[in-house]
Structures are given as C-alpha cells and as structure tokens.
Structure of Cation-transporting ATPase:
Amino acid sequence: MKKRMSDDDDGAKLLQSPLALGDGLGQLDCGLGANIPVLYLPNEYRAIRLYRPTLWKQLVYGVASILSFGVLPLVSYYVPLLQAACTLTPLSSAYFATVVLVQHMESGMWETISVHHGDSIWFEFRKHRYVFDEAHGVFQRCSAAVHATPLASVRPRLQTGYSDDVAAKLNQYFGPNLLDISLEPLHKILLEKALHPFYLFQITSVFLWLYEAYYTYSCIILVMSVSSLLFEGISQVTNTRKLYDLVQKDQEVVAKVLRSHQVENIPAKNLVIGDIVVLETGSIPADMLLLEGECGVDESSLTGEAIPVNKHSAPPNATIDSTSVRNKYKASVVSAGSAVVRIDVPCKAIVLATGFHTSKGELFRSIVCPKPIQFQVERDSYRFLAALSILAVLTGLKNSYDAAIRGLGFIRIVVSWLDLITIAVPPALPLILSVGVGYAIQRLEVDGICCIDSPKVNLAGHLTCFCFDKTGTLTKDHMSFEGVDVVTANDTLSGLVSLDKSPRIVQYGAGMCHSVYQSQDGLVGSPLEKSMFEASGFSWLDDQGSQVQDPATGERFTYIKKFAFDPALQRSSVVLDKGQVFVKGSPEAMMECCLSVPKEIHQTVHEYAKAGYYCMGLATKTLDDINAIDKSNIARAQVESNLTFIGLLLFLNPIKEESPELISALQNASIDIRIITGDNALTGIHVARALAFDLKPEVVLIDMTVNEHGDEVVLHHIDTGVVEPYSADGFLRSSANADFALTGAALNRLQTSGALDVDLIEMVEATKIFARIRPDQKTWLVQTLMAQGKYVGMCGDGTNDCGALKAAHVGLALSDAEASIVAPFTSRKQNILDVLTLIREGRCALMTSYVGFKFMVMYPVAQVVMTSTLYSSLVTLSNNQFLLDDMVIVLGLSLSMLYTEPTKILTVQQPPTTLFARSILWSIGGHIIIYVLCFGLMLSIGTSESWFCSVDQAKANMTNCYTYIPPPGDGYTRVAHENAIVWLFGHWEFVLVAVAINLKDPFRQAAWPNNNYFVGYVAAMILLLLGLTLSHQPTLLEWFELAPIPTTFRLQILGIVLLNGVCTVAWEYIVTRHLDKAPAMHAMAEIRIT
C-alpha cells in the first residue's frame, strides 16, 4: 500500500483495491494480467465510525477511571461510543483508522473492531471481511467466491494453475480458507457475565449488607451468584470447544493444487478462490465446481440424504455466477463439508468459495453469529424493576427528609436510602428465576433431554409453530424395499407384488443392478440399494464387488462394467459377463432409453408418489457377442439404449410409530406444524397426509419445471395433475381451498427473480411442506416464520439442520452428532415425543417464572411498605427479623414453590407472552391493594390501642411504656411497638401470597398433593408464624428485638391475617379463572400424554 504522509493526503491510492464496475461488483487487479471479479454483498451493519487512538486522551481516561473508582470504564463498557469519545480521535478516512465502531443492524448496539492494514484495509464483522473500496471511499463486504467468470477463461489454467504471486494476493485480500471459531478464555467469559446489570446489582447489594453486618444472607447470595456464573461460563466454554473441534478436524486437510505448472500439496487454509484442485477421496475443504472427471460424493452432512451423489464436469460454455451456480450446476458442484467417496474418472475442480462463504461456512456462520432473540420476560422484568426502583426512590426521598429533620447524619441517610433500593429491587430475583428453569432442566435430564442453553427453556413455553425435518425425524432414517410392479404380457402393469413372486428376470435385476458391496463390517452402500439387495437374497462371493450368486440356482454372475448413478441422466447400469444388461433409474429417465413402456406408467408413478412410494424403473437387454466387445471401452450410451422395460421398483420411508401421536397432540393444542425437508416434495406431502396434518382439501406444489421456454416456476395441483405457470393471481386463487408445498429450487427462483410478482412472506405463511430445501434455506425459512411473530421450534437429526436448530427460538436435535452441539436441546433417546415433553416443561417453567416473579414483586413491595412506615418513625427492622423474612420465609417458599412439575395435559390455552399480561398485572395490583388496605387497618387499630406507645413517648419514659433502647449508632431503634405491629402482621403476607399464586393452572400440577416440598414448607411457616404471633417468650422477644404487646391484640392480628388471606386467595382465583379466561378455552382440546 502506498504510504500516506498526512491526514490531508486524500489522493492516496490503495494498490490492491478493487476497481468498481457497477452496483455490487468490482475487479481486483492481481498483476500479471490477472483481474478477478469481486462481488460486493449488502452490508450487515447499520453504521460505522472510524477512529485512531490518541495518547493524551488515553492518559486522561486512565486518570478519570481511577478518580471515579471504576465507574467511568464500567459505563464505557455499556456505551462504546463514550469510550471512543474519551480515548480515540474520529476520522473521515480509513487510511489512518485502527479502530472501527460498528452498529449492529438488529439491536442498534455498537461493537469495537480492529482495522487491519496491508495490501488492503479491512476489518471483520460477523465472520465476513469488509475491505475499503478506495474508489467510493467506503467499506464493502466482499464475497470470497468466484463470480461472473466464464469457464472458457478458466480452462487454460487447468494445466498451469495460479502463479504463487497471484495466489498470495488473493489470500491476502479474501483471507485464509478457515472457519475461525475463537475460543475465549473462561475468565473473560466470566467477566462479561459478571458485568450484567443484575449481577452488578447483586454485588453492590452484598457489599452494602456486609457494611451493615448482615453477613449470613450476604454470603448465601454471593455463593449462589458465583456458582451460577461458574456454571454458565463453563457450559459456554465446553459447547464452544465442541463446535471448534467439529470444525477443526476438516481444516487439517491437505489439498492437491496446481500452482505455477506444478501439483503441490498445500494446507486447506491456503486455498484461494479460482484455485485448480486435483480431487482425491476424502473431505472437501472448499466449495468447488468440477471441470474434469466424474466422482461420487457423500453429501449427507449437508443434505441429510445418505445416498452418495454422482458428480460430473460442468458444461464447457458455463459461466460461474456465485448467486446461482449451486442450483444451475448442482450436478457439478462439490461442497465443503461433503466427502469424495470414489473417483470414477480423474477429477479437476475450481475452488468456488472459501471460508465462511462456502455452504458449510454459511451454516456455521449462522450458528456462531445468530440473529439476536429478544427474551420478552427479561425485557419486561427490567420495566417492572424500574417501576420498583422509582417506588424506592420516592419513599427514600420522604424518609431522607424525615431523617434529616430528626438530625441523622448524611452517611446514615444515604445507607438507608440504598437499603430501600435493595429491598425494592430484590437482588435474588435472577437466582429465583434461574432456579425455576434449573428444576425444569433437571426434569428434562431425567427424561433424556439434554439442555445447553437454559434461557431457551422458557421460550419453549411460548411455542406456536413447530418445524420438522422429515427423514430420521418424522420418518425412520432408512428406506425399505416394498416390492415391484412388473410389466405383464399385455404390456400393462400388474400392481404391487413382493419380489419373490415376480419373474426371475426382475429378481436378477434387483440382485445385481446396484453399487452395494461386501466389507468386513457388512454391506456397504446406500440404504435404498442395500434394502433391495437384501430382499433379492443374492450374496457376494468376494470382497471386490465383482461376483454375486443367485441363491435359488447357485448360478454365479460376474460384473464386467458398472456405470454409477448419474444425477444428470438419473440412472445407473451394470453389464454382466454373459452380456446381460440391467439399468435402473427414475421412471422418466427409463422412458427415454426403453423401446416401449406401459401406457399407464405416468399415472401409475404419480399415484405411487402420492402414496409415499419412491419409484425406480428397471429395464434390461442382452448385448450380442459380448466376447467381441472391448469391455474396458464399453460406451454408456451403448449400454443404456434400446432397453426392455420390465417393471417398477418400489420403496418406502416408514413413518415412526410415535409420529402420529405427536402430530395429533400438537394440532389439538393449536400449534402450527411445518415440514422442512431435503427430500422429495411428493413424499413430504404423503407423510403430511399420512400423519393427518390439518390440511385443506387440496395441496398445490410450487416447483420448477423445464419446457421449451426454459425453466419456470409452476403451480402443480397434486390431486388433479394440472400444471399452470406461476402467477400471483393463480396463487391467491388456489389459496382459498389449498395448502401449498414449496421446493427449494422454486424458492430460490422466487427470491432472486424480480420478474415474478410474489409476496414471499405470504407464501411461507401459506406453505405447510418445504421440500428439496438446502441447509441455508432451512435457516431462512425458520427466521422468516419468526419474523411473522411466531414462536418457532425446530426438530431435526442432521448437520443440514444445524443452522435452523440454532436460529429457531427452540431447537431439539434427535442426534448425538453435530446437531447436538448447536441445538439448545438434544434427545438422547432420539424420541420425537420428546417434543411434547419439552413443550410441557417449557410451559411449566414459563408459568413458574411468572409465579416466581409475582412473588418476588410482592415480597419487596411488602417489605418497602413495612420499612418505609417504620423509617418515618426512625424505627427499622432488626437483622434477625430481616434474616427470618429473607432467608427462612421468602427464600424457602420461593425455592419450594418452583419445584411444581408440569401437567400431563397439553391444552389449547397458551401461557401469557409478557409480564404485562392482564392476568399478571391484575394479580399483582389486586394483591398490593389488598395488602395495603389490611396493613393500614392493622396499623390504625394498633396505634389507637390504649397500651400503644410511640417511639417518642417511650423515649420520654412516659408511664406504661416499654423500656426504650437507644439505637446502636445508626439513628434507628429496633425495639418499638411500631416494629412489633408492622412485622408480626407484615411477614404473613409472604405466606398468603405464596399460597394464592400457586393455585392450580393449566400448565402446572396442583401443589397438593404433587409438590410436597411446598405444601410441607407452607405448613411449617404457618406454625412458625403462629408461634411468633402468639408467643410472649422473653428469649424470642429479645432475639427478634420485639416490644411486648397484649395477647388480645395478637389475636386481632391473626383475625386480620385471616381476612387478608381470604381476600388474597379469592382475588387470585377470580383473576385466573374468570377475568383472564382466554377465548380458546371455550373450545379447549386436551391430550393426555402417556
């Protein structure tokens, strides 16, 4: 890069900066005549600001940080713009910038990122590189993918490759071919979590309580908070390590690459786009396009399909367009993360994309850089706590005024005010909410469901939509061979019969036309062909895959040629030593190479597909004079022509036994269900119908078709067979009485074509089955459903589901492999009914959080009322009184009430989606009013009694008053009639509210007899409070610093407590049973889960 002499040198040029050619496209000059087109992607940030460090500002900032006792850097942590203003100098140009502040698109938060200088100026955001475009003076998100490149310009490099200089420049500009997943140290993660506002408040509260010698409660809260932090931090480190290990194993691959006319073995990280690679069996380290040769590729990690796919070279006149090449030349693209299982003809390929721009990279980018999910309960809790804080501040102002008038010192007034804030904003709230979720996670563990993301438990209670992969999720993960439909003498199809009842020629075809072979570990091959081979009864006579034996006659057959399945031709074939040829493939492909086929084959195949069968045609012929043919040079066209069609091979992907129960339960609970699969659309439709999906009378498939005008999107009416070109009017007309199925190819065309009038959001809403969907499309579909306001769950079993599992509000993996690393939940039993368990536990945990929150709101309200009332008379509760209320009554009740288990019933009724739901607000508001009224009644009666002495009266040693005990240096006395009246009545509120809010609801079991801990603890607390209320025992009075009051008044306290309790329970019952009854309850359906 040319060195700039000053900030004023705005004419400086970046030597390697791409020249802009137009909107979204540039060109990188690599020297030696190598000009590489560069595609610019839309930026993923809202705004950026450029800075460079300033020494004097940093020195001033350091001094200010010390003088503010760390407050300035703490605030700067939450407000990066403040830190930038204090330590950095803003710039208008990128040439001297070393730091950039990037504003996130969704959240609006600012993130500080380093700027790198070299042959180009760049920074990395969300795993993509942004390079400074000198021509336009802006940073551009560069796609590390080949774009707008004709293959005719690439083929001269098939023998030479890039020069080392060009490769080095490309590597410097686009970065290494790595999926760089950083491993943050545990101490950094713990520090970030400790700086959360809740934890900061807890730490502040603990120090305040320690200052006031309130040691017991302080230490318990501190230990619990530290334990929670450690658990969260260690879990995050462990999960990140698993993801890192998963990526790392594929990055240690060595590739054979043409560089400067020589084939070199280089690490995969040094691959650059446009490199010419000589393919070998093993992992593929980057997305590539096959230019020469043929090979078989296992794409199961990306598509979920276990059958290896044949790949052949791309057409010589093709043009590589990074936005469409994967769809347009699917049969020639090999993707990173897949594996070459065999080389049929030596292969050379061009690297299409590297790093996080590959198919696998985009999948993992969606995992490590997910779109933020807003947790409504957490957001609402801040609003509630803000309201409580305002309450504390207002009462604190009044009490501060009263204290100042009475001559208390400034420090004592401030401490008392802070006390009110720590009372009004309960620092134990995060603990209580996390414990409730922790109980749910424990129960999930017992049921065989592992959770690695605890906040997602509550989200499971909100779910309104659930998406399922098909193969291995709703259906079993294998294909079963069901039989054949053979051609009769009348040239018609006979109908489905078992293989052993079919003609011998059909049995020979099933036993010999496949790519299955025998190994030491058993049969190796696609599940489909293994199923067919096993049904035939044939056996291998060697482990070379060259000779099989007919079990019925003992006759042996030797293969002299095999043509593997070709995705373009849609068929495979074998030639035997006696000249017999067998060919199998898609029915459409077999029609092209057979002399004749039954007239009804189109309708028959369509009916079989609708019934869920996977159909393959089988044909045969005999080569004349096989011994005279050059067996090594038999042409495929010669083998696969002029064939005699002999029947259809029929397979099924069986539905899991538990799937119907699951779908029925979800639909009766009004949870929207979608299938998102990489499998065939007709198979997906059949599975949906077989599982009794709530579908309209007709299903219309939105698909791509090829005709004389090229490929176009069509509306295929499955039941009638009518096919019409896609139009907005046709879509709207069909939507009245039809649900839709949508293929990935059609979705891609609709996304990229501006010529079609389509509302994708409306289309996704109307579509129940998504078929032939790529992993990145699965993620997009889940995010689109979420953007419509749905709470979306996803259930899948493979790597191709990882992005969707991570993006969804709740993901459940039925796998022990890659999917389990990124999914919040994993079913160890791989049982799909765990979806129901997860939803029930989620609803229970959510309602438990609401119950815990209501209790933790009423607890500080009650204590603020008590404390502020006493502060007005310069009286306070004693440490032992606080200890009993906080540690024994409140903490014990809150922990035990959270242990209630979920109901066995899944209902139409949904839990509230917000803490500001009508039932919650009315419940809290009513309880506060009831408590304040009863508290005021109690205080009014008590202070009007003849025996009552105020603090001032006791201090003046008036007759018949209790002995006044001066305050212990803080200005607030403990022993007073005000204290005894307020505390003996006030702490009953904790028990009464706990009982009321734990009435039976639709999502949790009744506390009695299912939660013995809570019931037993309530009984113990009632006995304890009865004893305290009625006791005159001197030790108790001294321990709790209570002034003596008459027995008759103690009985009055119990009477008002009873009134308070009746009103509290009655109000909660009215709110939950009548005032907030959801309309869906009138038609509630219940499914008992066994």
